[in-house]
Amino acid sequence: MKKSKVFSWICLLAVLISVLAPSAYAVEDAPGGKSTAIYLADAKTDAVYYERSGEARLYPASLTKIMTALLVVEAVDRGDVSLDDMVTAEAGFDHDMIADGSTSGISLGETMSLHDLLYCTLLASANEACNIVAMHLCGDIPTFVDRMNQRAQELGCTGTHFANPHGLPDDNHYTTPHDMYRIAKQAMSYELFRTICGTAEYTVAATNMSPARTLQNTNGLINPNSEMYRGYSYDYAKGIKTGHTNAAGFCLVSAAEKDGVDLICVAMGGVQTEKADGTPDYSNFSDTVALYNWAFSNYSCQELVAEDELITEVPVALGSDADSVPLRAQKTITAVLPNDADLSNVKKTITIYGEDHACTAPIQAGEILGELTVSIDGVDYGTTYLEANRSVDLSHLQAMGATVSKTLHNPWVLVALFLVFAVIIGYAVLVIRYRILYRKRQKELQQARLQRQQMQEQADRERMFSNARQKPHRVPRQGEAQTDSKPKSDVTRDYFEEFFKDDK
Predict the structure, then answer these.
(1) pLDDT tens sequence across 225-257
(2) Which residues, including other chains, have CB under 8 Å from residue 275's CB and lie 6 or more apart?
(3) Which bin fits 109, alpha (ψ -120 to 50), beta or left (φ > 0)?
(4) Share of the chain above pLDDT 90, in %
(5) Would you say residue 211 has pLDDT above 70?
(6) Whole-angstrom Cα distance, residue 369 to residue 359?
(7) Are 230 and 224 in contact (CB under 8 A)?
(8) How would you write 161-202 as a 3-class SS string?
(9) Cα–Cα distance measured from residue 493 to residue 504, given in angstroms and rounded to the nearest whole number
(10) pTM (whole model) above 0.90
(11) Smallest Cα–Cα separation from 40: which of 287, 247, 221, 235?
């Protein structure tokens, strides 16, 4: 029993080491930061570069508005609503609002386009705007919240539950950094969402109750003029959303891209401290910037397969001018890897679409004949089609031979041929038997005919002799026509010969 326990602990330790150990490549340690939980991952491959408490359930604050905006953007994409929809703030739009909550100053009865309401939601983090769009999409806020939770489940979120569309404190309102990554990645797949959350400043058109108003993005990475988070402007940032309540701390979901490295970082439970110069330092921003700089310094987008690169050569059946064809990659495959990554262990898995993994003429240049999947240490980094690098014409003679061979190897064809052969043999046997019987019959008829002929001749001779004894021979007179003296027996014999003529 003791040995079993020791062994179990050893196995557990080995697993932990394998999970927590850094890559075999020489990548310097990532900065830890002060935020409670952080999740940094590749937006293209979902590869996790850094994680701390990624599955911890925490209050998201206004990060919630990413899901709210996502539902609106998806509804626009489906055609359920339009950005030009004019939406009026109806009774109940200020449900659960707090005095010091973020707002765009929208009043009861004020009408604004859905497009402008999205900017109020993501840039100004307006709580009332979230309620207004929720009511516009689903008729009421509870129904919209149900849709938020349903969509979270569809995206694979396992530690998320929403209680409202804006993120104000609620015991049943929580998420995880990993789940927020899933939601943000889906939202960033829409150009409309990327455009809005990446805008530093936006002017809302005048309404029936308010002149035009200018919104400032609360995201200090995007907007250097952010009232609260100044000094964090980041050249490679593309969004996404800030969040803050006393319960949630300082939160930030952001995206950044540099030289093909596309990242999303979630920082939750951040704290406010002071910099050396006495200005406030927010760990959600400082941790995020530090991690981006670390990732961009240690990782790069590296080419694993080049476009039009010759990958392999496969045999070609029935080709008239070639018995093989080279295959080239249709597109480039890249991977974000440590800068000193050894690419010698890149594995290329080739799949040929043809029968028995071979190709058959005719083949046109550029024709897709297979695909290539590239992986490193069991991780797939991309797949591309394989195209024929040149054309191969068909050999009609070989094609005909192949058709015949294939036909003959078909079991049903073999059965049919056997039946035909059996019928032919049976017919031949019947014909031979018929001919034997026919010849035998003909021989019997011939013998009978000869016997009748002999008997008739014998009878004719006897009559002739009998008549000769009874009646003298009369010599015709001069000028008298000679009468036919042919015995009757001769006429009878001719009749039988004519009757059996066809049987000879």
Answers:
(1) 998 899 999 999 999 999 999 999 999 999 999
(2) 281
(3) left
(4) 63
(5) yes
(6) 7
(7) yes
(8) ECCCCCCCCCCCCEECHHHHHHHHHHHCCCHHHHHHHCCCEE
(9) 16
(10) no
(11) 287
